[in-house]
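Morning F.,

Quick status update on the modeling queue. The single chain you submitted on Monday has been processed. Sequence for confirmation:
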Amino acid sequence: MKRIKFSFNPLLLIRLSPALLSVTLLFFAGCANIPEYPYKPVSYSLAPAESGGLAEASHRVMKKAEDGESAFMLIRNNEDALRWRLALIDSAQQSIDLQTYIWSNDESGRLVLSRISAAAERGVQVRLLIDDMPKDWSDESTALVARITNIQLRRFNPGRVRKGAVSRLFQMSTQFKALNRRMHNKQMVVDGQWGMIGGRNIGNPYFGLATAYNTRDLDLLITGAVLPQMAHDFDAYWNADAAYPGEVMSDQLSDKKIRKIRNKFKLAVIEDRKLFTQTRIPPDPIDWRDEFAALSDQMVMGTAQLLKDSPEVKGDRGVRLVDQINETEAMIEVKYQSCVMTPYMIPSKEMLADMARKVEGGRRIRILVPAMESNNHTMVHSYYKKYRKQLLDTGVELYEFRAQPSAEFRAASDTSPVEADFISLHTKAFVLDDQWVLIGSLNVDPRSIQINTEHMLLIDSAELAAQLLGDFERMIAPGNAWTVTRNEKGKLRWTSGEDVRKYQPARGFGQRCSDFFWRLIPVESQL
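Structure tokens below.
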């Protein structure tokens, strides 16, 4: 009798009906999945605190404000960015709502979590919303934190299948459009009185504590009239269908496993103190009243509007940030200047044509992006570089941030005594004329514009615009950036002071090899 051989070809899945494919998916998933429709109570932001340290600090700052205004302070320094997050958390008396894309399980990530836990212990109501794609937290850790008294934790848009490479591949192949939509928003609202928004995630590179690379980044510390908009935006995401309750993401939490996770965390936090005692970052909660008292002289006034994507991941995705930005730019009638700072630039044909029209109409457009040497995602750079000449042909001025900038920029990016191998540009901000500022989470690439959820704060403030424009001028100066031009033969040149390069600056031969191979993979629409 002839022996029959059976083989399985995953490509045959594309020929299966959706129903059969779903059954197949569940078969391979086994028990490694999470409930489809768990109970999830609707909740909303608490009313702003009327008393307490944060309320008093806000009242002092806002004494000089007019109706409808808010107060803003740029946070450029990475060490200060972590300090101000801790200051808000340590000073909270009523509520903390925190939304982020990445929350790393490293020194800074554990420090923020430990301070959040301390706030919850003293009765502060905490809501944490974290995207599910970065896998720094296990499902067990997520469930454990979500079950802490006074803490609620939700993951944005998790796939039901949690384990098994084949099972997860099936899941992504059948639900790609929905699962590909990630929440890239980053903000915090504390006691309804203070907030932060910007480009930083929670992790060592964003606070100057990484050794591979640290970022040149930007946040805004905020109080005033725009806080209810930020709180409403958080509520929309918190109560969205895609926000999944963390407490049901694992049913494997035995008493033994809980003790193991907690002990491992406590030991790591104790070990982390060795690093923080060498910095200005307090490893334990402190009294921050002096820092808040000084803000009256440091913050500037303006009016603000929050622009954002809707949180839907299926079907009609509702309001789109890019449409709001385009409508707003037309409304405020930007006339003569646009300065763009973005870590990732992959322009569409329509965007290039729009730039050309604006330059021809008399607007000066200057763009700062990372050089390949300072890009933390070489793959994205591999697709940006083919647009260099097209960008220059529109008439824009193009600059690329250096991996080894000036001592001033090093000091703002590295938290002493840590010194990273290179500095990566991660700032996401725009200055329009000398009056308007846009700061938030948006990159100028297909993923940010078409796929992910994002938000930006549009601010009308000549003083803030002047500060950010000054930052931009220093960032594009020789020593901090390369000026990208074309010579008489059309060849690209990189110039920084007396240093002139014929080839794009790179961290080494290995990065040049990676750049060559990445551009062969057709994934531009996903970057």
